[in-house]
Amino acid sequence: MARVELTGISKRYTGGTVALDAVDLEVAAGEFLVLVGPSGCGKSTLLRIVAGLVEASAGDVRFDGESVVGLEAGQRDVAMVFQNYALYPHMSVAKNLAFPLRLAGVARAERRRRVAETAELLGLTELLKRKPAQLSGGQMQRVAVGRAIVRNPRVFLFDEPLSNLDAKLRGEMRGELRALHERLGITTLYVTHDQAEAMTLGSRVCVLESGRILQVGNPLEVFERPAARFVAGFIGSPPMNLVAGVARDGVFEAGTLRLPTAAPAGPLVLGVRPHDIEIGADGSEAEVIDVERLGTSTQLVCALGPVRLTLACEGHVTTERGERLRLRPRPERLHWFDPESGARVPT
Amino acid sequence: MRSAGSASLGPMFAAASFLTVALMLQPAAAQERTLTALVEDATLVSWPVLEELARDFEARHAGVRVELLSLGGASGTQDKVKFMLAGDLPLDLIRIDVTEAAAFLAEEALLDLQPHFDADVGWDPSSIFSAPLAACRDAEEHLFGLPQTFTPYVMYVNRDLLARTGLAAPGADWTWEDFLALARAGTRDTDGDGRTDEFGISLTQWLQAVVPWVWQNGGELLDAGGTRSRMDEPGFAGALAFLRELLFEERVASFDATFAGQLSQGLFQAGRALFYGPVGYWETYRFQHIDAFAWDVLPLPRGERAATSVAMGIYVVPRTAREPELAYAFLREVLCGMRYQQLMAEIGNGVPGLVAAARSESFLANPAAPPSVEVFLDVMDDARFMPPLANWRKIESLCQAELEGVLLTGATSAAAGARAMAAKTDAFLGRERARHGRRRLPSGAMALALSVSLLALGAVFLARRGPAPPAARAREERHAYGMITLWALGFVAFLFGPAVVSLVLSLCEWSPLRPFGDMGFVGGANYARLASDPTFHASLSATAAYAALAVPAGLVVALALALLLRSPSTLAGIVRTACYVPAILSPVIVAAVWRFVFDADDGLINRQLRAFGAAGVAWLREPNAVVPAFALMAVWGIGAQMLVFLAALQAIDPALEEAARVDGAGPWRRFWHVILPALTPVVLFNLVTGTIAAFQVFAQPYVMTQGGPGDASRFLVLYLYESGFRHLDMGYASAIAWVLFVILGVLSLTLLASARHWVHYAGRARG
What we know:
The complex is a heterodimer of chains A (347) and B (767). In chain A, 24% of the residues lie in helices and 36% in strands. Chain A has eight helices and 19 strands. The model of chain B is unreliable at 1-8 and 257-265 (pLDDT under 50). Among the domains of chain B are: 154-310 and 389-435, D-Maltodextrin-Binding Protein, domain 2, CATH 3.40.190; 445-521, no CATH class; 528-758, MetI-like (MetI-like fold). The chains are: A alpha+beta (347), B alpha/beta (767). At the A-B interface, strand 6 and helix 2 of A face helix 28 and helix 29 of B.
């Protein structure tokens, strides 16, 4: 279990592409931190820099205060689980699990004991003699995790480990990984592009975009107070409504929408989550242009002049396309962003 | 629409296939009479003249067209004639070496021209030199051809070097002692570095050039009837001992250029040899441009008696000629006419067979010829042809292999070498006698064998096909069969059929000069002969040694290169291309280039070795070095294997290597535990194809060593080729082919069977 500190990490490739731009991040010992962002945001590169698979162009990586820059991946005492599992295809499950121990010079008997222990923990005992090609996706995933935990490393690194699984299995594995982390308590960096995974797994979430960290915080905090327009749109499902308009004399105007705001006058972006819009007698008039029934909830897409708002209603509603409604975003649940910088406008 | 389109595709392919084959088999439309002659190399200066003669001939014979085919150059010429005759290609007039005449006669491959000569009022036998003419007569004294040019073996001399010795110039009757004294005086280390720079003699060492010394020493090759060797007698061994002394004790002689295809040539041309020989008139063609020193020719020095050997090219008419009358008429016009024969003398091809041409200015006052050109005529009194034996080529090749041990590597003493030559020759002659009285293969046997195997092939196909598939599948299958029709026809006609024929041939005795049906059935005799044939044993072990060296070395180097070059950089791209280029070069060109690399005196390798103070290796003359040399060459050409490894490396999931890095594996363990296991299917592929290729090596030894020194590089396919096309023993060659097939089959199956223990297929468990 180690505290991981990243300071001023940059990665530039020949040709000028900047993958990471002066990233600072601290992961507490035993913490489960999820790096989330769209593809190409630099999250995997950051993970690989921590692993020692990629060399940073600048910056320092410290484990428990000690720099590991210059150390080979194998010397950093980290374990990594890859998106496609990267199991050694010619080795049996048992040999895959034992491989890092073998490289570390662990004696045969000890190796056998730890492999058996890990297999027991992950329910792999029956599969020890099989080759990876004879396993299902979920089983391979378990073996990959097993190969990571068998060494009892200082840091766990997960690189989109669940993205090759179907939705049902993904949900199950999420639960297992959470339980495993609670049980082992090893510092974990987990990369995903799936915000739901980020929300459910992490004790903290770090949102990256274009090689920069936009926000780090616990999932609820990120959800409730997104620090940037991008975070607001990325975290949460269905995504937050983001409406560009203008603030004038304490009133935000966009299409037929009129809302009071404390933001200074000028162009402004409103953010409001679909769940935070109420239908009532007063409010701005809107026309329902699409209805999506999801069973437990219903999504309505409404037009307020040129402005579109999605709102989510609990359960089944009878509203039909073409109906006219009055919408009232809950005033305490409004987020304001600067349209230029995307930063949150404090109110 | 789609299904209709694809439905018509299969039958269309089938129709196209049949049409193609039918067109190929369509006989050419009947036309004028054509006389086809294969007598000259198109690159020679005399070719245009021959063409003019052909046009003259056409002008005087209405409706006749003379088609001149080129013989091609160098050692291939003798093979080309046989290839064409074996392939039943129409030839009316051919040129062969006189040493091969007996073989052609024994196979009844030549037309008896005596009736034509008898009916020819203009024919005057005395117009042709008598000894050469006599060599064109068969056992019944019938003429079967006429001499083109001939040449006795003489000694070339550098007159400037001769003057520097301060000794008297040798006369026509000089002796071995005179020769030795001059050779000693002519051997000098001019720059004092301990290595001889000027040699007394650049000694030629092929059998026909060695035989004059034997005859001079009172020795003989064979007894008068050609039934027993006399090589173990003192006259023969004594001559070898004398030559060996010149080379290894007196050290006044250097190896000759042309010996066994070696490169270190031009000692005489470079002005570094006092004498050069014994060798024929043809060298004047090469030497006429020497300006740096004066040179001349001398009779060979005499031992107990004077003697020399003669080389000669003759025009003959194959028995299968379609236009024998025209062939005879053209032969007479060309060879008995002054124009062509004088030209032959002028260009230094040889002594014209026509007396008048040889006595003319063209020969005697030829500015390109040496001053004492009449020596070539004078020594004919003491000149002899090689024994007219049907299997002379084979005996020559057996002796040559031993001769190399005595005179090239020096590994064998003269007496031991002579004994071995005698033993091999006698064993061979005995075997040949035992072969007589063979049963003819019943006509139709070959056709029967072909039909039976075709039926068997069909039966295997039907048996493996399984139950009839549902209608939709069946339609699909029919299309598939339609598509492979052309290939299948090609397979049966050009692979399966010939394979069956060669299997039957391996049980027979057949010369490619005979008609195809005319073969004697010998049962397993060819295989029995293989079991007791020392040349075959040598060939087999040389091939195995080559494969054992070249295949693993090639695999390791190809893999190492692939690992080094897999990163995508510009430099790697360039080096990758450079490494692949040898793989697309013709092996003949590669061999020609590598002769310069391996050359003992001035080769690339030896020059580097000497630069570091190491002694050079006579790569292609040293029996222990020649196989490793070929293996080294093979390693140079592993570009294709490297490419396969590169492709396989690129197919390895990079995450696997990353996982191993995180797991703590360094470069070596990553290679050993991750990369190599993933490459094992490709290693198996390269191992099997590499082994097969190694066992089939041919072009390189054919160009570079002709199997020498001794039999050290007589690899299986080279021996097969020699047996079939040089020694006209197609049955034996077929037996070698089938033994090779079985060896390769067993090796390949063993390797494939072993695969389950070490080859890992991704996505599938082994075993």
